[in-house]
């Protein structure tokens, strides 16, 4: 299968001499969600970005960012991360044969993501501070020229991530009426806005953010100061969309509905787009795409904590039948 860069080369900032660093990203499923569609009275589709190689949408941008860094002669890349960027940067850096340095805010990263970054051989440093403080330090090192910054402030990341909009348009045969997605740093919203603009039309953007950004259970969007706040706000305004603050209860309710009604297991932050639809006026029959940004195994502790524990049973068919009722 062609890499994402090969598929969209003419729309990306790459040349014939750019080395392609790929793990088979992109081409993720767009699943119809029949039960939730009936509840909302719309035609709802789920863009399942957890099917990317490291389990999140970050891989779309990282293939371009690392390829361009390698083209420029980089020997090390750096990022600050609440988890998904770290896992993606570490994987693609390993693929490229360069060093990855990951700055993570102390106590703020789900174990699945941290395990990935460490397994890929990244130099993981726990910063005694917030994500925003870690990002500031990463930006300074990037500015010194010793490391290439691969957070979404790197424009190559946004260019790669915009390809999800192209895929949605191709799979639907047009542009959806509404695109709903989580809002943490705003980079993904910025990328979708750019991608749909290049595709020729823009849906109405509905973005779900945590009402308590600094402490939300949805760790992937636990970002107090969104780096792309201005461009995200513009995208929402121009599209006639809506930014919806969400309680953790609302996010987790949507997270459980996705798993139990549609069989889609995602990390809690990924459910923020669906949760935001609940307070959005949707006309009957509206075509909605909800971006599911990361796989549920990114945050196994939350899944275990919120799911019923298994019951003990004797290895007897009658006892098993009785217990399963």
Your description of this structure?
- There is one protein chain.
- By secondary structure, the chain is an alpha/beta fold.
- The protein has two domains: 4-56 and 156-305, 3-Layer(aba) Sandwich (Rossmann fold), CATH 3.40.50; 58-154, Rossmann fold.
- Helices cover 42% and strands 16% of the residues.
- The protein has 14 helices and ten strands.
- It has helices spanning 4-7, 34-40, 58-71, 84-96, 111-119, 131-144, 155-161, 163-172, 187-199, 229-239, 248-262, 272-277, 300-306, 317-323; strands at residues 30-32, 43-48, 76-80, 99-105, 123-127, 148-149, 178-182, 204-210, 242-246, 287-292.
- Strands 1-2-10-7-8-9 form a six-stranded mixed beta sheet, with helices on both faces.
- Helix 5 (111-119) links the parallel strand 4 (99-105) and strand 5 (123-127).
- Helix 3 packs across helix 7 (155-161) and helix 7 packs across helix 9 (187-199).
- The longest helix is centred in the last third of the chain and has 15 residues, at 248-262.
- The radius of gyration is 20 Å and the shape is globular.
């Amino acid at each position: 299968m062609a890499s994402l860069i090969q598929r969209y080369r003419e729309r990306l900032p790459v040349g014939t001499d750019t080395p392609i660093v790929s793990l088979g990203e992109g081409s993720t499923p767009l699943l119809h969600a029949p039960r939730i569609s009936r509840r909302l009275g719309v035609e709802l589709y789920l863009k399942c970005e957890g099917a990317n190689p490291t389990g999140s949408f970050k891989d779309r941008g990282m293939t371009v960012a690392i390829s361009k860094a390698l083209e420029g002669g980089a020997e090390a890349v750096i990022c600050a991360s609440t988890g998904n960027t770290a896992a993606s940067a570490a994987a693609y850096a390993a693929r490229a044969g360069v060093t990855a340095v990951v700055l993570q805010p102390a106590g703020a990263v789900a174990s699945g993501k941290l395990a990935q970054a460490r397994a890929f051989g990244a130099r993981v440093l726990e910063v005694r501070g917030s994500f925003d403080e870690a990002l500031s330090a990463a930006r300074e090192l990037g500015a010194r020229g010793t490391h290439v910054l691969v957070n979404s402030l790197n424009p190559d990341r946004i260019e790669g991530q915009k390809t999800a909009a192209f895929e949605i348009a191709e799979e639907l045969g047009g542009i959806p009426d509404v695109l709903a997605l989580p809002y943490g740093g705003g980079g993904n919203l910025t990328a979708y806005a750019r991608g749909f603009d290049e595709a020729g039309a823009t849906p109405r953007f509905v973005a779900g953010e945590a009402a308590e950004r600094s402490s939300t259970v949805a760790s992937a969007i636990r970002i107090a100061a969104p780096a792309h706040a201005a461009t995200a706000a513009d995208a929402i305004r121009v599209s006639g969309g809506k930014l919806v603050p969400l309680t953790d209860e609302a996010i987790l309710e949507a997270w459980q509905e996705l798993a139990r009604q549609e069989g889609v297991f995602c990390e809690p932050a990924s459910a923020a787009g669906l949760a935001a639809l609940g307070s959005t006026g949707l006309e009957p029959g509206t075509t909605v795409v909800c971006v599911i940004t990361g796989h549920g195994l990114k945050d196994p502790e939350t899944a275990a904590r919120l799911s019923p524990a298994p019951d003990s049973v004797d290895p007897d068919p009658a006892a098993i039948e009785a217990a399963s009722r």
